[in-house]
Design goal:
With 397 residues, the chain is of the alpha/beta class. It is built from 14 helices and 13 strands. The strands form four sheets. A five-stranded mixed β-sheet has the order 8-7-9-6-10. Strands 2-1-3 form a three-stranded parallel β-sheet. A three-stranded mixed β-sheet has the order 5-11-13, with no helix packed on it. The longest helix is centred in the first third of the chain and has 28 residues. The protein is elongated and about 105 Å long. The protein starts with a helix and ends with a helix.
Length: 397
């Protein structure tokens, strides 16, 4: 009996000890507290940040919307399907705006613009021809916009991309505001049959008066105007009046009524080793057939002339002003001038586009006289006197 009681007592003591041990462990045996689970606060959804707005693109988009309402841009430009095609690419870039390209030779454009504007008739959004009238009247008539108020695309205004080192260098008008020339070409003075009269032998235009060339100079009549008259005017400016008179008389030149006729003579005979009045399109027709391949221009230091007969100008009362501004900002970009070079087959004054006509690109390392600027005053200084001299020296021929 006593043994049973002792056993019960020991069992109770053992249970009590185990209970105390359990309490001790629960109260401090483990130094790391048991974490209390918590609920994370809800995360706020961030407000979307719109991408930054390109102010130039926005302005072009706004201008495009307004131009679409006008629906048309009308251009007066030089006759050439190639040049026309370059301008027409605008329709692909800006659908909904039709390009009307009207071919106007320089003399026709000069007379037409003067007549229209004197009668308050405004038909043109962009003018790329008629420089003689425009340069002679813009200062007094105020009929052209300042292109600095029109052009805003930084790609166009980047000075480093233009011939001459700046955008403004390429204006034809003395004010530097109204007629922006994007076109450049070498203006030839004379061509020779290199196999008969080596081109390297012409170190000066004065060499055209050498006695051995008497009767061998062929000339498209400079009284007819156009390229033959300009070439004669270059000779006048470079060498003076007496030189031109002697070349037309003492040298006894052969006078032709058309370029085609003269180049044919240069190609088929040896009678015309020197030709004045050769035009590139006519010469190209022959050379594309493998004929006249030795006919090349002379380029002595005193015979370096360049021109820029294609330009952008906008009349103050253009009927579609938004389309005109959009066209101006596009056509002078890399894209627009690449079309001019590739489709128009002409050189651009932009330095970052391909050459359209490499053989007529002036070498930027040497100096050239630009006869197409207002400061050159070429109509008064040279073309009119040239016509007078030619009429006097060729009288009766």
């Amino acid at each position: 009996m006593i043994t049973i009681r002792k056993t019960i007592r020991l069992s109770l003591l053992l249970v009590a000890a185990m209970a105390l041990a359990a309490v001790a462990v629960a109260c401090g045996g483990d130094p790391t507290p048991t974490p209390t689970p918590t609920t994370a606060p809800p995360t706020a959804t961030p407000t979307p940040v719109p991408p930054p707005v390109d102010p130039v693109k926005q302005r072009l988009d706004d201008l495009y919307a307004k131009a679409q309402e006008e629906g048309t841009v009308r251009i007066g430009g030089h006759p050439s399907d190639f040049r026309r095609d370059a301008w027409l690419v605008f329709e692909e870039r800006y659908p909904g705006i039709d390009v009307e390209y009207v071919a106007l030779a320089g003399s026709e454009a000069n007379a037409r613009l003067q007549s229209e504007w004197e009668n308050d008739v405004w038909e043109w959004d962009i003018l790329a021809t008629g420089a003689t009238y425009l340069l002679g009247s813009y200062a007094t008539e105020n009929h052209l916009l300042d292109l600095h108020d029109v052009i805003f695309d930084p790609e166009v205004l980047d000075d480093s991309k233009w011939l001459g080192g700046s955008f403004d260098t390429n204006f034809l008008d003395a004010a530097g505001k109204h007629l922006f020339a994007f076109h450049v070409f070498i203006a030839e003075t004379a061509f020779v049959r290199d196999d008969l009269t080596p081109v390297d032998s012409f170190t000066s235009l004065a060499d055209l008066l050498k006695p051995e060339y008497k009767g061998k100079v062929c000339w498209v009549d400079p009284r007819l105007g156009g390229t033959p008259q300009f070439m004669a005017a270059f000779l006048l400016q470079s060498q003076g009046e007496q030189f031109l008179r002697d070349l037309l008389s003492v040298q006894e030149p052969q006078i032709f009524g058309a370029t085609q006729e003269m180049v044919t003579e240069m190609v088929r005979t040896d009678n015309c080793p020197i030709g004045i009045g050769v035009t590139r399109p006519v010469l190209k027709e022959f050379q594309d057939q493998g004929l006249g391949t030795t006919i090349v221009r002379i380029e002595p230091p005193d015979g370096r002339f360049q021109g820029g007969s294609n330009f952008v100008s906008i009349p103050v009362n253009a009927p579609h002003p938004n389309a005109a501004q959009l066209m101006a900002n596009w056509f002078l970009t890399v894209d627009g001038q690449t079309q001019w070079a590739e489709k128009g087959r002409e050189n651009s004054r932009r330095l970052d586009v391909p050459l359209g006509n490499a053989e007529r690109m002036p070498n930027p390392e040497v100096e050239w006289f630009d006869f197409s600027t207002e400061e050159a005053n070429y109509f008064v200084c040279c073309l009119l006197p040239t016509r007078t001299i030619a009429e006097e020296e060729l009288a009766g021929r």
